[in-house]
Design goal:
By secondary structure, this protein is of the alpha/beta class. The chain contains 8 helices and 4 strands; from the N terminus they run H-E-H-E-H-H-E-H-E-H-H-H. It has helices spanning about 5-10, 35-50, 65-70, 75-85, 105-115, 145-155, 160, 175-185; strands spanning about 20-25, 55, 95-100, 120-125. Helix 4 packs across helix 5 (about 105-115). It is globular and about 55 Å long. Its EC number is 3.1.2.22. Keywords: Disulfide bond, Glycoprotein, Hydrolase, Signal. InterPro entries: AB_hydrolase_fold (IPR029058), Palm_thioest (IPR002472).
Length: about 200
């Protein structure tokens, strides 16, 4: 038995037949919905699951804006917008499997918990489900980046930062857990998802 026989014999039933379960993907920080990496994943899914519908979540159809929005914006609003986006796609009405990369997995999990999405299975790769405790590291010679991180760490729970810097919204200060619980805009969804 060769590897292709093993692969085809272990495919879930949702991959078989002429109408397989659709797949939704959400990219990670600094990536875009239509990057070469996301296109490659889509191509693999389409090759391995004939006739599958694959949708890559976007925050803006313009790739530069989509990439920027993976760093800047109100995360609760972004998730609400993605819920609306997914609920408007007819191919997803009967349910779909969701695949999230890095922070995209965290956001899909949040969307699954907060919205009426018919997600059958959620698969995440390298997703910070427990938050992050540090900011992305800076190159050794980049003093501007280091200064920015220093300022952000001190202001991470400031309301303006919480509503505009995506990664700050899931930053978890392990040394000041109460402050995290009290001030995390991502944990305190408020009335964003009501009505």
């Amino acid at each position: 038995m060769d590897i292709s026989e093993v692969a085809s014999s272990t495919r879930p039933s949702s991959c078989l037949g002429s109408n397989p379960t659709s797949v939704v993907m959400w990219h990670g920080m600094g990536d875009t919905y239509n990057s070469s990496g996301m296109q490659a994943v889509k191509a693999i899914l389409e090759e391995e699951i004939p006739n599958v519908f694959v949708h890559s979540v976007y925050l803006d159809i313009d790739e530069r804006k989509d990439q920027r929005l993976s760093f800047l914006g109100d995360l609760n609003t972004q998730i609400r917008d993605v819920c609306d986006q997914l609920n408007s796609i007819p191919e997803l009405e009967n349910g779909f499997n969701a695949v999230g990369f890095s922070q995209g997995g965290l956001f899909l999990r949040s969307a699954m918990e907060l919205c009426d999405l018919p997600i059958k299975a959620l698969i995440t790769y390298g997703s910070p489900h427990n938050g992050v405790t540090d900011l992305p590291p800076c190159p050794e010679d980049n003093w501007l980046c280091k200064r920015r991180n220093s300022i952000l760490k001190k202001q991470v729970y400031n309301a303006n930062i919480q509503n505009s810097v995506v990664q700050a919204q899931y930053f978890r200060d392990v040394y000041n857990f109460e402050k995290y619980l009290e001030n995390s805009a991502f944990l305190n969804h408020g009335d964003v998802f009501e009505g």
